[in-house]
Amino acid sequence: MAGPMADEMPEPPGDQALGPGQAPRGEGQVPVIAARGVTKHFGSVQALRGVDLDIYAGEVVGLVGDNGAGKSTLVNILSGGLQPNSGTIFVDGQRVSFSSSLEARRLGIETVYQDLSLAPDLSVWANIFLGREQTVKGPLRLVGWLDRKAMAASAEADLERTRIKIGSVGSPAGRLSGGQRQAIAVGRAVAWGSRVLLMDEPTAALGVEQQERVGELVSSVASQGVPVLLISHNLPQIHRLCDRVVVLFRGQVVANLRPAECHVDDIVSWITGAALGARRSA
Amino acid sequence: MPVRLPAAFSPPASAPPARPEGASPGERPAWLDLVDRVGDFWIVGVLGLLVLVFGLLNTQLFTKGAWLSISNFSVEYLLLAIGQTFVILTGGIDLSDGAVLGFTGMMSGWVMQGMLNSGDSSLLTTIVGFALAIAIGFLIGAANGFLITRLKLPPFIVTLGSLTAVGAAPSLVNGGTEVSTLPPQIGNIGNGAVGGWIYTTFLVAVVATVVFGLFLHRTRFGLRTYAIGSNGLAARRAGINVDRHLVWVYAISGLLAGLAGMMVMANQAVASPLSGQNDELDAIAAVVIGGASLFGGRGHMLGTFVGTMIISLLVTGLVLVNVNGSWTEVVTGIIIIGAVALDQVRLRLAEL
Known about the structure:
The complex is a heterodimer. Chain A is α/β, with parallel strands linked by helices.
C-alpha cells in the first residue's frame, strides 16, 4: 500500500539544469510531483538512468526526446504502471511508492495513455467511470447496481469541457472516430485528475482543429492549478503550449528549457544530442 | 430493455480501426439505417422464422406437448449457457461445464442416497443435495479460474483438462452406476409444472436467466466483465482486479453447472454418470448464436436465451417434420456458422 511518508525530499542535484532558463516557475514551492534518481531497466536495456523531474502547480511541462529516450517509461512510473528499479517519487513533497496505477489515481494522478486505454465495446460513460462506478442508493447497492443515469449525465458534462462532439455518451467507444475516442480519454483524465495530468501523445490521432482544442484544454486545466506533463512529438505544439520543456536523451534529463527563451530548433538540437555534444566540447 | 450490443471490431488486443476523420455520416443509404435499427435483435427474427417454418410444416408445433418438450429440453443448456455467457464475455471459454454438471449430479445423488439410507429426512436430504451440487460446481469453477489467472494458462487448456478429469469422475462415484434412491422432492421438482404449462425446472432456468441477466447488464460486476473482455489492459489500469474477477466468473459458470446437474437429476429422477456429456458444446453454440463474440466484450443474456431456444426448437422441430435426429446436429452446426457470418456482415455494414 502506497502511503505518503514523511521523508525529506532532497533538492535536485545541481547539474540538472543544463539548458538556458532552468529556474522552474514555482521555485521555492514544493513540486506537486517529483522524481529523484529514477532508474529503470528492462533486461539489459537501461531505459532510465537516474532521472530527476519536478512539476509545479499550474505548469504545463513538455517531455520530449527521441524514440527510446525513456519518455513513456517515465510516464508509466509516475502513473504507477511500472515500478522503478531505484529512485523515488514524491507527491507534494511526500515520498510515495505506487504498486499499481490505482494507487496513483487515488492520489489524483491521471494518465492519458498512448493507446487511450478505452474498452471499445463499452459505452462512453462506462469508459469514463470504469473502476469508479457509481451505484444507486438503497438495498440494490449491495449487489453493485449501477446508477447509469447519473454516470451518463456526469460523463456528458465532463466531455462538454473537451468541446469535441461525441454524439451520445451511450454509444460504444469503438464506434467513434479516432478524434472522438481521444477526446474521451482526455476528458476522462481531466474529469478525475485532481492533482496531476500525465498525457502520452494525447493529440497523435487528432486533426488540426481538434489538436487546438486539446491544447486549450491543457492550458485551462493548468490555469486551474493542475499541472500537466505533456509528451508529444509535435514540437511546435510543445513550444507553443508548454511553460517548460524537459528533454530526455538516452534515459537522462539533458535539458530544462523555457520555450519563451528558446527556439524550436534549440529543442531539436537537445533531442538529437547535438547540443549535448556542443556543450561537452565547449 | 433496449441495451445495445456493443460493437465487435478486430481481435481484442489491437485497437479498433478508426473511422476516417472527415467521414460524414450523412451519406449512408436508407437500407443501412434499417440494418442499424434491426440491430442486434435480428436473432429474435431467426427464432420467429424457425417457429413459422416448422409450424407450417407441422401444426403440432403449436401444441402444449411440443412446447413442454422444447422448454424441458432447453433447461440444462440454458443454465450452462448463462455461465458460459459470462466466461465468453471475458474472452475465455469453459469447456468443463458439461462435465461439472455430470459430476455434481452424481456426487449430490450419491450423498443423498447415503443420507436417506441412514434415515435422514427427505427435506433435509434435498436441501443438502442442492447445496452440495452448487458448492462443488462453484469450487471446480473457482479452481479453473485460479489456474487460469495464477498460472497464466489459457482458459481453453485449463477447462479442457478439467473436462477430461472431472468428466471421468462420475464413473468413480457409486461404482459408476445410476443413483435412483432419491428424495421424493427431487422427483416432484422434475414432474411439477406451473399451471400445467411451465415445468418447474424451466421456471428455475428462466428465473436464473433473468437474475444473472440483470447482474450482467445492470451491475458493476457485469460492466467489469465486459470491460475485461473488451480491453483487459484498460480494465487493469482502471483499477479492476482482473484476476480475482475472472475467478468469480468461472466460479459462477461452475455454480450454474451444479444447479443444472440438479435440474437434470430432477428431470430424469435418477443421477446418471452419463449426464452432461458434450453439453458444453451446445451451451457455447447457444451463446455464439446469441451474438456473443469469442474474442470477448460483446454479447447479451437475451441473445443467449434466444440462442438456447433456437437449438431446443431445432431438436423438437426436426422430429416433428420427420427428419432423422442426426440432422439436428448438422443444422445446428450450419446455424452456428451462419449466425456468426451474418453477424460479421451486419457489423461491417454498421461501420459504413
